[in-house]
Amino acid sequence: MKKNILKNVTLSLIFTFAVSSVFAVDFGATIDNSSKLYTNDFSSCSLDQTDSVLTWTKINFLNSGTTYLALEGLFSYEYTNSVLGSEDADKLNDFILDLTLFKFFHTLKLNSRNTLSFSAGRFFISDSTSTILLQNADGLLTKYENPHAKLSLYCGYTGLLNAKSITMLNSSDVTFSYDSSLVYDWNTSYLVASLSGGLPFILFNQSISLEVLSLTGLPGPYTLNTENTTTIGDNRFYATLFVNGPLSTEIFYTFSSTFSTYNFTEVANLSKAKVDFYFPFMNGAASINAVYASGENGFLTSFKGITSNTASYSYDEPEYSGLLKAGASASIKPVSNILVTLGSDAVFLCPENTFSYGGFEVYANASYQIFTDLNLFLNAYYYKSSDSTTDNAGATLKVAVAL
Hints:
By secondary structure, the protein is mainly beta. It has 1 helix and 18 strands. The protein has an 18-stranded antiparallel beta barrel. The longest helix is centred in the first third of the chain and has 21 residues, at about 1-20. It is globular and about 65 Å long.
């Protein structure tokens, strides 16, 4: 009897060590608090506050980390008060429950210079401009890389995402709303597909890439709400040329231009340019940048991205459409755990054929890693519009604790 018990214990220990050598499990959580105060005319102040808990798990199937499963779950509480101190203010209490990451990843080294990787599940996806598509989706991503070429192919679906976490830009023909009383409600359904190829350091260390991105409306569970209308027929196509590289050892640039079409009947444009300067004083950096998103300008129509993305600090929170913005920023690290950034932009509006001055904004950001697991972030801004109707001043304080 004792021999059998000893045998079973020994086999269990052997199995445990064998499994632990193949599977390594990491897990943790982050607690986050964000408080934002803002005002349009300084006569009253509004408050947005968010408290969230993000839990994560990563299961490594091989010690090399080339194959793993990653999961993240989010629970957040949002409180909004339109006018602080007023009994007549609009007050909102909202709860969100979301699966923000469910990703299986595997990478395969074909040889010392060629790598092939696969990702499947729900994970974050972005286009090359980091302006058009910035969100999670459920899909498949394949990448091939070597020192001379890069190629990636992605296909995903948006209809199972939480509409309370991700705001997508639908065409004007689509009517959509979600049930705010639920912690999770379906988003609009699209098929997202992209193909990109790049040639890194092709000439004088300059890199070039081309990306094509398509959005196709599909039926989905969001139409269970009878007030919502289908996205079928809302089809968009984007083609982006992206170039970047060094101009000297301390100066680098990026430039991109995207032409898009809606059902192949309209053409719109988004163009971005940025020059970065690096200097040794306090690990400093400075940049000048400009972005143009077409309105009804000549043969161009109003540009529309895929994911909602605020273009300026204006009170009406405009999207990248019908505007030209140019500015500069600078950042320093006075000590290793503090980063400070100052910046300003001038905004010009071009919803029609003429350009007009829209406003001017200044902003400051500061991040402070107090301890390894405790971070603080502060953002302050002021936007002065040409007619004072969309003036905006505010500040956000965010504290994150990793467990």
